[in-house]
Every structure is written in C-alpha cells, then in structure tokens.
Amino acid sequence: MSSPTFSPGPREGTVRDVTGMVLTVPKGWSLLPPGDAGLTRRVKAAGDHWVVQEKKGRKMFSRGVWAPTATIEKMRAGLDAERSTEAYAKKQKAAADRREKVQNEYVEDFHGAVLAFIDFHPDYDALANRFAKAVTTHATPVGSGTVARTKRIPIERRAESAVIAWMRHQTTAYDTMTIPRVKGKRREVRRMLAQRSKELLHLYRQGREIPSNCPLKAALK
Hints:
Layout: E1 5-8, E2 14-16, E3 22-24, E4 29-32, H1 37-46, E5 50-56, E6 59-68, H2 69-83, H3 86-118, H4 125-139, H5 155-170, H6 185-206, H7 215-220
Helix pairs in contact: 1-2, 3-4, 3-5, 5-6
C-alpha cells in the first residue's frame, strides 16, 4: 500500500481521492486525529497510512491519518513510555527555554522595528512607545497568524504592515463597514484606509498639533 492524500469522505470510515472517488478505509484501521505531531510522524514512518486533508478557503487543514490500529497503538505506547522519562522532561524544558529566548528576542526586535517605522517626533515619544507596545503585543504571539510571524519579508516591512493593520482595526470603522461583495472592493477599501493611517502618522512625525479627537489617541487610552 502507498500513502496517498485524501479528503474526508461522505460517510464515516470513507475518504475521497483526487478524482472524487469514494473509498472505504481498510478493515482494522483507525483514524489518528491531528494534534500530536510526534505520534503522527512515527505512525507515518511505521508503514502504510492514508493522510486526510481538507481545504477551507485558501488553507489546507489536517483531518488526521488513517493507519492500522495496531500500528497506532504500538507507536503510542512507545512514545508514552519515552515521554515519561526524566531525560525526556529535561529535553522538553530545554527546548521550551530555547523557544522562549528566541521569542523574547524577536519581540524586542519587532518592537524596535515598529518604533523605527512610526518615527514619531520627540514630542510624542510617550505615545510612540505605547503605540509600539500595543502593535507588538497584538502581532508577535506565536501562532497568531499575523504578518509579524512571516519570514517571507524583512522585519521592517512586517512592522509597517502590522502598524497599518492595527490602525485599520483600531482607528477606523473598517470592522463595522458594509463592503459590497465585489471583486477587489475590499482591497480598495483597505488601501484607502491605509492612506488615511499614513497621513495621520505623518502628522505625528512632523510634530504637528494633534486634534483632541484623534482616533489614535483614543485607541491608546
């Protein structure tokens, strides 16, 4: 048996292949749900299995792996025994400490990149720091799915995108707007709001007097 990828079938115990044909899962197999990456890797490496994925929008989500029940149970028992050892616990703690260190360093770097992008006049230093902290707190958590977590673009561009996104949601009416379901309309609205946000940032960079009803001030209170 090979290990092809399927989508969920119309009934329990079935899958659908790339041609749309519905197949019944082999007798004696069980579905290992997603969530335990270590166990899933071992089950896949152990032999025959069927991967089940489902596309939602533009994203692909795992729905688990079908494999012989005996294989799943054997791999789970071995992994449980390994995870119960003191050596494993130390290894996990060391890995967690490394991840925390990397995350803290990234948060610090990102905060600095946000401050560099907004580049407020010294008269607005206090507001700039509150602003940068708010954007950084929102954008940098692991798993947040924000632009700050991508490595495909430089951190400077991540910071700029995160600032504009934060302002779109916090200083404009974007979240309550009724936008026509016309192709490109939402992108057009976002561009328009981004331009307004950039104009507001420009006032703070120039050290200009800011109106008391400034939406950025209100959002950061």
